Inverse folding.
C-alpha cells in the first residue's frame, strides 16, 4: 500500500472485524461496572486496550452516549494518519523500473531496443520480501538468459 500513499491521508482499521458496533455497545453495557480498560483487555491486546481507554472515564457506566459512540468508532474505524514514507534504504518493496508493457513476456527482450533483455528488480514488479523477490529475480534471469529461437 505504501506505493500508493503520499502522506496526509487517513487510513482506518477495524480492530474487531467480526464484531459489530451493536455487539460492542452491548458488551460495554454488560460490563458497565468494570473499567473500560479491563473490559477491552478481554477483546484486544492489553496495550491497545490501554491506548483506546485514554481520554474516557474510568468505568463504562460513566460514558455518555456520545463517548460510547466515539469509543466504538475508534475500535471499528481506528484512524491512522499517514505522515509519509521512510527512506528507500528502509523500504521492503520498491516500485518502478522497466515497464512490463515495454518487454516481450516470453523472452524479456525490450520491444524498443532489440537484443536488450531485462531481469530481476530492474523490472517494474512489486514483490514481497521473504523469497518472492529473489524467486522473481532468478526466474526472470533464467528466461532472459535462455536462448530464444
Amino acid at each position: 500500500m505504501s506505493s500508493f500513499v503520499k502522506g496526509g491521508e487517513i487510513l482506518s482499521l477495524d480492530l474487531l472485524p467480526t464484531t459489530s458496533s451493536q455487539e460492542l455497545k452491548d458488551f460495554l453495557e454488560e460490563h458497565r461496572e468494570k473499567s473500560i480498560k479491563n473490559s477491552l483487555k478481554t477483546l484486544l491486546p492489553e496495550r491497545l486496550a490501554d491506548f483506546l481507554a485514554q481520554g474516557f472515564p474510568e468505568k463504562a457506566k460513566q460514558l455518555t452516549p456520545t463517548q460510547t459512540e466515539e469509543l466504538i468508532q475508534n475500535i471499528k474505524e481506528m484512524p491512522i494518519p499517514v505522515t509519509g514514507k521512510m527512506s528507500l534504504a528502509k523500504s521492503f518493496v520498491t516500485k518502478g523500473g522497466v515497464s512490463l508493457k515495454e518487454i516481450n513476456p516470453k523472452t524479456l527482450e525490450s520491444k524498443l531496443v532489440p537484443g536488450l533483455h531485462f531481469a530481476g528488480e530492474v523490472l517494474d514488479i512489486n514483490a514481497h520480501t521473504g523469497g518472492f523477490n529473489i524467486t522473481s529475480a532468478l526466474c526472470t534471469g533464467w528466461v532472459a538468459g535462455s536462448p530464444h529461437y
